[in-house]
Amino acid sequence: MDNEFVSYSFILLLLATLAPGNVALAASHMEDATGVTSTTDFDGKHSSSHMGMGMDDLVNPAAKVFAFIKDIQVGKTMPIYFPYVSDPASFEFLPEEKIHGIPLSSEQLPELLRFFSFSLDSPQALAMKQTLHMCEAKPLEREVVGCVTSFESLADFAQRFFEPDSRPRLGVLRSSPISDTTPLLQNYTVLEYEEISTGKIIPCHNEPYPYAVYFCHFQPDTVNKVFMVSLGGENGDRVDAVFLCHMDTSAWDAGHISFRLLGVKPGESEICHFFPAYDLVVVPLPW
What range does the record give for the signal peptide (predicted)? Predict the structure, then answer.
């Protein structure tokens, strides 16, 4: 296909070249799963399996991802949580031909479990069930959602909403992964930052599955901003992170953790958050 993804020099991972593999091997990435925790997501609307917030979410270190635009000033120091990704390859799309013909359907979950050799009562089966439920759930009002399973389907999804008649080039932003010696939560100092895009931005969240499945959502009438921020950790490591800002939070649930953490109410301020390395943001490029 002729969709072309190009990158800024500051974009850390462009999914234009994907590691080879096969679906059977991809299933092994879930073998160490212990279950799925349904949580409040970064964007105030959908659940996510990655951020382990529960009853004590206000003191959970994984909640240390929210901030305001004013917080990304050079020299500013703040505590930020970045989860460790032990196998970054498990979050990369497999080539389209490797997954072609494998349905992403809860109706066919029993057949899929047999295909991947997972038992009905296994943690992997629960993870797949919840991911398929999310992919098939009815979207909220004025929101477009979809699950993508390949680089090609991601491009097709994005091109539908970024001025399809002009077919703009699209960039994929992703945070750099931390090392296995980096503290999950530590103080980071802003070293530099760059605003990448304002307006139509598509965040996509990786969901637990035997191969890479991303839940993408888009609100045509909502303006967002996305930045790339270079951060220096207390331990000397550097992280280049995606920083997404939702400029209109008036329709968000008043109980969302970000409001409690930042001390604001729906519609009073933008809400921004740092992205983990396993999620991504699609933006139109200006050339």
Answer: 1-26
